[in-house]
Specification:
The protein has about 160 residues and is mainly beta. It is about 0% helix and about 40% strand. The protein has a single domain, classed as Jelly Rolls, CATH 2.60.120. InterPro entries: ConA-like_dom_sf (IPR013320), MAM_dom (IPR000998), MAM_domain-containing (IPR051560).
């Protein structure tokens, strides 16, 4: 609904991700970029933008970290809906969250390369008694052509 904060990466302005274009390893592009799959966003639009792992990077993983969210309450849990794309060989995509009082990221959800070269959608729910950040992580085990992880259209409910 209209109350969800949506980040579709069509512009560089996503309030929930401070300066996401500076987060190493992710590249904002569209299907016409010449960088291999995916060749469109999750709606099948070749010109629409999404984030994917940059094949040029030295390390094979990248994280995308949100602003700090306030604690959730019983009426307003934080729901996050997102579209993701995995290459068939070695892609892994994870969502985690980190409480303010902790150094470690707690893994909430993860998927690996058995889903072959197509956009999928998922919704996760977060319940936290303290301030927290959400981290989206992509990994590929090989730098072969066409091996990537991509993310598009992340929406955050008002409980986030």
């Amino acid at each position: 609904g209209s109350s969800w904060n949506n980040c579709d990466f069509e512009t560089n302005l996503c309030k929930v991700f401070p300066e996401f274009n500076l987060q190493t390893g992710w590249i904002r592009r569209n299907g016409k970029s010449g960088l291999g799959p995916p060749y469109s966003d999750h709606n099948g639009n070749e010109s629409a933008y999404f984030l994917s792992l940059s094949s040029e990077m030295q390390s094979s993983s990248a994280a995308l970290r949100t602003n700090v969210f306030l604690p959730t309450d019983e009426e307003h849990l934080c729901q996050i809906r997102f579209h993701y794309w995995l290459s068939q060989m070695s892609g892994t995509f994870m969502v985690g969250f980190q409480k303010h009082s902790e150094d470690t990221v707690t893994n909430i959800w993860q998927v690996s390369g058995e889903l072959r070269n197509q956009w999928n959608v998922n919704t996760i729910t977060i319940n936290s008694t303290e301030k927290y950040e959400v981290i989206f992580s992509g990994m590929v085990e090989t730098q072969r052509q066409g091996e990537t992880v991509a993310i598009d259209d992340i929406t955050f409910s008002e409980g986030c």
